[in-house]
Design goal:
Layout lengths: L3 H16 L5 E8 L11 E6 L13 H9 L4 H8 L3 E5 L18 E6 L8 H9 L3 E3 L2 H9 L6 E2 L15 H7 L6 E6 L8 H14 L5 E6 L8 H7 L7 E7 L5 E5 L4 E2 L10 E3 L8 H9 L3 E4 L8 H8 L4 E4 L4 H4 L6 E4 L1 E5 L6 E5 L1 H12 L3 H18 L2 H14 L29 H12 L10 H11 L5 H18 L2
C-alpha cells in the first residue's frame, strides 16, 4: 500500500534482501493468511489475519481485540516459533506493536520496536513501552528528544527509508507543464492522504489569501490525494471563494494506469486512453500513481506546501525536496526535523489546540503564514529557488536515503547474536487459558476490566487508556452490559483464539 509504513517496508526489505546475507520473514499487518499477493515477494511473507470469514463477527465490537488481530497478535507466537528469528523488528504505530513486548520470546532474542510518535505529551503507552524495551527507535527526532527528556536515554532516531532514486528534478519539466496546460501558472502542491490531520482548510484559506494578494500569479493548487475520503475539498473551496477550476488533482485509471493532472470535476471518470468506463479516480492508497508518475507530479509544482496537525515523518516532504522544490512545512511534530537550517525549508507558524480525549497538543497552521511564505517563494529569483532546492535534496540524501537507513539496520542485525533455538521450544509461548479464574471481588470496574484483559485474553499491554478498555467501561457504566456479559465475551473470544492457533 502507498502508505508511509508500506513504502518504508518495501524500501528496507528490498535493501536487506539484496545484500544476500539474511533470511527474511515479513509478517504483514492487515493481510489475510490466504491472500495470493503474499506469494509475490522474494522473501517469505505471512498474513496475520485468518482467511476471510473465519473470524467471529462479534469480535469487531471490541476495538482492542480487532486492532490487535489486524496487527498480528493472533498468530505472532506461532510465526515466531516456526521461523525462529535471531532478530525481531516491529515496525508500526505503538498500539500495533506493544502486544508483542510481554511475550516470553521478546526479551530472549534481539528485539526492536521501530515506531512513529507525533504529538506531545508522548502517548502513555509509548512511555511505558520505552521502559521495557532495550532497542527503541523513533522515526522523528522530535519525539526522541522528548523521550530522552523523560529519562529514556536509550531511545534513538531511525528515520523511515525513502527510495530516493525515484525522485529528482526533471530536465523536461517545462515540457511536462505544457502538457498539462500549466506553462504560465504558479503551481502550489500538496501530496497527502486525505486524513483529518492534514490541514486542508488551512491550506485552502492560505491559498485564497495568496490569490487575492497576487491575482497576476495565475495560481493553481495541485492536491495529489483522494477526493473520496476525508475533507470535503470542493465544499471547502466554495466556502473560501476558490473557483473549482483552480483546484488541480491527479486521476489514475485502475485498469491501464494512465494518469492525468487536471482540474477536479468529479470522483470517477472514464479513461481517455483505454476507454474503460468509470475506471479513473483520484489517487488513493490502493489505486495510486507509480513512483515515476508521482515524480512527474512533483515536477509540475513551483512550490510544495505541507500543513498538518502532526505526523510521524511525512514522507512527501522528503520526496518534494528530492525534486528540488522549496518546501513549506508546519514547524511542529516531525515538521521540526524538516525545519532545521540545513533542510532548507520555510517554516509555517501555527497555533496550538488540544485533541479531545487524548489531550494531545496539535498544530493549526496559520493561513497568514502560508500566505507569507508563498509570497516569499513567488518573489524569489530562479537562482534563489535553485540554491534552496539543491540544499534540500542533499539533506534528504544524507538522512533518509534507503542505503543510509538500510546500513543502520544491517549494523544492528549483524551485531546481534544468533539465538539459542531452545527459547522457541514447547511451553515457551504464552498459553491462553479461557477458563482461568479472575478476582470478582475487585470493587472498581476499571481495575476488574484490566484484570480480565490480562488474565483471560493475555493482553497485558491493555490499560485504562486503551480504546477497548474505554469501550467496555462505557457499557458497564451505562448498565448496558454487566460484568458477566463482558467476562462471557472475553472467555468465548479466548476459546476462539485458542482454536484458531491449532
Amino acid at each position: 500500500m502507498k502508505t508511509g509504513f508500506g513504502r518504508n517496508a518495501r524500501a528496507v526489505l528490498s535493501y536487506l534482501y539484496k545484500t544476500g546475507k539474511y533470511e527474511i520473514l515479513h509478517y504483514c499487518c492487515g493481510m489475510n493468511k490466504d491472500n495470493v499477493m503474499l506469494d509475490k515477494t522474494p522473501w517469505k511473507s505471512v498474513g496475520c489475519i485468518p482467511p476471510a470469514g473465519e473470524l467471529r463477527g462479534k469480535k469487531a465490537k471490541d476495538p482492542s481485540i480487532q486492532r490487535d488481530v489486524n496487527y498480528g497478535s493472533l498468530f505472532i507466537d506461532e510465526v515466531v516459533k516456526d521461523f525462529k528469528p535471531d532478530v525481531y523488528i516491529a515496525v508500526q504505530d505503538i498500539w500495533g506493536v506493544d502486544f508483542a513486548v510481554p511475550k516470553q520470546w521478546f526479551s530472549k532474542i534481539t528485539s526492536c520496536i521501530w515506531t512513529t510518535l507525533d504529538s506531545l505529551p508522548i502517548l502513555p503507552s509509548a512511555v511505558k513501552t520505552a521502559k521495557k524495551v532495550n532497542n527503541y527507535w523513533i522515526w522523528s527526532n522530535f519525539a526522541t528528544q522528548e523521550l530522552r527528556r523523560l529519562g529514556h536515554e536509550h531511545v534513538k532516531t531511525v528515520r523511515g527509508a525513502v527510495e530516493c532514486t525515484y525522485f529528482k528534478r526533471l530536465k523536461n519539466r517545462n515540457e511536462l507543464r505544457n502538457k498539462f496546460n500549466l506553462k504560465d501558472n504558479f503551481v502550489i502542491g500538496f501530496v497527502f492522504r486525505n486524513q483529518l490531520r492534514k490541514s486542508v482548510p488551512n491550506l485552502l484559506e492560505g491559498f485564497s489569501l495568496f490569490k487575492l494578494a497576487h491575482p497576476n500569479a495565475k495560481a493553481k493548487l495541485l492536491l495529489h490525494t483522494s477526493f473520496e475520503e476525508g475533507w470535503g475539498i470542493p465544499k471547502l473551496a466554495k466556502e473560501y471563494d476558490i473557483p473549482i477550476e483552480d483546484i488541480l488533482t491527479t486521476y489514475v485509471c485502475a485498469k491501464c494506469k494512465h494518469y492525468e493532472v487536471q482540474p477536479y470535476t468529479k470522483n470517477v471518470l472514464d479513461c481517455k486512453k483505454c476507454e474503460s468506463e468509470k475506471t479513473v479516480k483520484t489517487v488513493n492508497i490502493g489505486t495510486a500513481a507509480t513512483e515515476a508518475q508521482l515524480n512527474e507530479v512533483y515536477n509540475l509544482m513551483d512550490v510544495y506546501c505541507h500543513p498538518f496537525t502532526s505526523g510521524g515523518q511525512e514522507i512527501p516532504i522528503q520526496e518534494a525536496k528530492l525534486t528540488e522544490l522549496v518546501t513549506l512545512v508546519t514547524n511542529y511534530s516531525c515538521g521540526v526535523d524538516s525545519c532545521v537550517e540545513e533542510a532548507a525549508s520555510l517554516p509555517l507558524e501555527w497555533s496550538e489546540y488540544r485533541e479531545q480525549g487524548t489531550e494531545f497538543r496539535k498544530a493549526s497552521t496559520k493561513p497568514e503564514s502560508i500566505l507569507e511564505q508563498l509570497r516569499k517563494v513567488y518573489n524569489m529569483t530562479d537562482e534563489e529557488r535553485t540554491k534552496m532546492g539543491k540544499q534540500a535534496r542533499k539533506w534528504v540524501l544524507l538522512n533518509f536515503d534507503t542505503p543510509v537507513i538500510g546500513k543502520q539496520i544491517c549494523e544492528f542485525v549483524d551485531d546481534a547474536p544468533f539465538v539459542d533455538e531452545s527459547v522457541f521450544g514447547e511451553g515457551e509461548e504464552e498459553e491462553i487459558n479461557p477458563y482461568i479464574p479472575i478476582d470478582n471481588s475487585i470493587k472498581e470496574d476499571k481495575q476488574w476490566l484490566t484484570e480480565a484483559y490480562h488474565k483471560i485474553l493475555s493482553m497485558t499491554h491493555v490499560d485504562e487508556d486503551d480504546d477497548g478498555h474505554k469501550y467496555w467501561m462505557e457499557l458497564l457504566e451505562s448498565k448496558k452490559n454487566s460484568r458477566q456479559d463482558v467476562e462471557s465475551y472475553f472467555r468465548q473470544t479466548a476459546i476462539d483464539n485458542k482454536n484458531k492457533k491449532r
